[in-house]
Amino acid sequence: xxxxxxxxxxxxxxxxxxxxxxxxxxxxxxxxxxxxxxxxxxxxxxxxxxxxxxxxxxxxxxxxxxxxxxxxxxxxxxxxxxxxxxxxxxxxxxxxxxxxxxxxxxxxxxxxxxxxxxxxxxxxxxxxxxxxxxxxxxxxxxxxxxxxxxxxxxxxxxxxxxxxxxxxxxxxxxxxxxxxxxxxxxxxxxxxxxxxxxxxxxxxxxxxxxxxxxxxxxxxxxxxxxxxxxxxxxxxxxxxxxxxxxxxxxxxxxxxxxxxxxxxxxxxxxxxxxxxxxxxxxxxxxxxx
Length: 289
What we know:
Layout: E1 18-23, H1 30-43, E2 46-53, H2 66-75, H3 84-90, E3 94-101, H4 105-115, E4 120-124, H5 137-142, E5 150-154, E6 173-177, H6 184-194, E7 203-210, E8 227-234, H7 238-248, E9 253-258, H8 264-267, H9 272-279, E10 284-288
Parallel strand pairs: 1-2, 1-4, 2-3, 4-5, 6-7, 6-9, 7-8, 9-10
Antiparallel strand pairs: 5-10
Helix pairs in contact: 7-9
């Protein structure tokens, strides 16, 4: 018996219209794939799957890859020997699959973003095709200033708001770092929009300010019956405090804004989000402002 995607609060809180998932289908990237597929299925959005491989013999039909096939059958979305197109038709997904044989995952993503309208990029934090393997000085120099795309970086371990084992998704705790020089309302807006995936009656959003409490920005928050806002104040190293707070509250997601004219991929090479992405044990959503 196949399972239907969960009807969420997305109907009243629009999130995204297009998702790009970047994967090499290594074990380290399956958690990111699970998050991207769940996001696409529950928003009925355009889903672009970019498979990056160094090997010429990489399979074109990704449902034939054992890890993917097993995941979809385990979730109840794909029955044994059912063609993948049946799943896409059932969930009304507009899917584009792209294979790039290259060792430069960053360049491949940049080309896709230049070709297509993408609202959010989903990548793994580790592995050969993972985001952290792209971090090098040349990236910041070659990235186009037009790349300003929201990016969800998912840890290789099964942490986050989607279970690889069951396909169930929920958010209980979200951490949003805020500071005067950033645009906290933007991060707050997307924290609220991601909260639509939660099956919990109440989602806790922890607004974290690192520094003098008297200099904390006044943040306007949307009132929703399923959101509980909590102000948290810390002093010390911003990266350490963000990571520590996420661990303390058992965060399912960290939402951060990235300032300036550069996009997220450029910004993380130069600012705090880079280190948060590297050390966070939960997904990190970076929103350019």
